[in-house]
Design goal:
Blueprint lengths: L9 H18 L3 E6 L4 E6 L6 H21 L7 E5 L4 E7 L3 E7 L5 H32 L11 H8 L2
Antiparallel strand pairs: 1-2, 1-5, 3-4, 4-5
Helix pairs in contact: 1-3
Length: about 160
């Protein structure tokens, strides 16, 4: 089920962006990042500037994978919530819908309790968005949807594009 390739349309992205922009305000966070389990950045919001989002996304996915292994060793299915406390900034990482990782970076302007409270609500909303995307992708795969993005592109088309 989670192996289905997700196709996110602009309307989906806008929903995700609206949720995380609201979360930035409500949790008084410095930055919010939505990452898939493969380490791809899906969306970001907040005041974090100059941060290497590619590294953040891949390291976050690696962190989730590593702690998933630890969870299995101790008899748990998953550790869906992670918290890392630093001198200036803190990270709150939540696994949403077993597929999406929500990363919240916050400092002394907020508190762990406030972040956890706001993330719970935002995580539910994000879960619904990604559940809809998942269902639509599964339906398109089951139907062999010819209207799926890139379905009309053949290997020959790709070869022709790069042989110029």
């Amino acid at each position: 089920m989670n192996d289905t390739q997700l196709v996110m349309y602009d309307e989906d992205y806008r929903k995700v962006l609206a949720i995380i922009q609201k979360l930035v305000r409500d949790a008084n966070a410095k930055g919010i990042f939505v990452v898939d389990r493969n380490g791809q950045l899906i969306g970001e919001a907040g005041e974090m500037r100059g941060i290497d989002t590619t590294s953040l996304a891949s390291l976050t996915a690696g962190c989730i994978a590593a702690t998933g292994g630890l969870a299995k060793i101790v008899g748990e299915e998953e550790f869906p919530i992670h918290f890392h406390q630093g001198h200036r900034d803190n990270l709150h990482i939540t696994l949403v819908a077993k597929r999406i990782i929500l990363v919240v970076i916050f400092d002394e302007r907020s508190s762990l309790g406030l972040v956890r409270l706001r993330v719970k609500k935002a995580g539910t909303e994000l879960g619904k968005v990604f559940e809809h995307i998942q269902k639509r992708s599964e339906q398109a795969n089951a139907e062999g949807d010819g209207d799926a993005p890139f379905s009309e592109i053949t290997d020959e088309d790709i070869d022709n594009l790069f042989s110029m």
